[in-house]
Design brief:
Elements: H1 2-127, H2 133-146, H3 154-171, E1 175-184, E2 187-196, E3 200-205, E4 211-215, E5 220-223, H4 226-240
Antiparallel strand pairs: 1-2, 2-3, 3-4, 4-5
InterPro entries: UCP028069 (IPR016866)
Protein name: DUF3450 domain-containing protein
Pfam families: DUF3450 (PF11932)
Length: 260
Amino acid sequence: MKKQRMKAVALSTAISAGALFAGAAQADQLDAIFETSQSKLALAQASQKRIDKLQDDTDSLLNQFKTVSKQIEDLRVYNAQLDKQLANQRTVLNDLDESINNVTVIERRIQPLIMRMLDGLEQFIELDVPIYLDERRDRVAKIRANMERADITVSEKFRQVLEAYDIEAEYGRKLFVYTDTLSVGGQDLQVNILGVGRVALMYQTLDTKYSGAWDQSQRAWVELDSGEYRAAILKAIKIARKQATQDMIQLPILAPEAAQ
């Protein structure tokens, strides 16, 4: 009986020891499984980080690609616009070249024209009634001197000649008076020269004692009857100087001659 109890205890002890060894073995296996799981999780996390980084890099590259594509498209539009502008500029340059060539031809033609106009103006002044004679001669002389200057453009020379023509035309459209010196009665006297356009040109001494008129047919000054025209000429002089109101005046006007 006693032996049987000892066997039972021994058996129970053996079973307990076996269970203990079995439990220890299972714990080691669990630790190994846990470590393997942790390692796989770390690998998975690292892989996910690489994937996220690749995704971020891909998104960045995609955005860069879109930006560069938009810039390329903008450059294409800009280049197309520049091509149109360059084409227009080439057309303008061609027109300018043609204009420059035409200007050269015009300058060669206009220079002789200016000289002919100046010669005609000078001849006209000498044949015209002696209005501001010295001033007009000086003006033509200055313009003629400018014709040889290289620092004055052809257009400016032409403008000066046209301006002189305008001044000449203005003399025939206004009532004017100025002071000059004439030989009257064998002596040089200061006189007021009165012009009614180019219709009549008269003089009167400053003391109103002598009066006269220009006779274009004789190309000379002719003395007038002071008693008949003295007051009329004096009044006209005052009107020309705006010292009197405009009024009807009887002045000596020579009848026009028939053209030959």
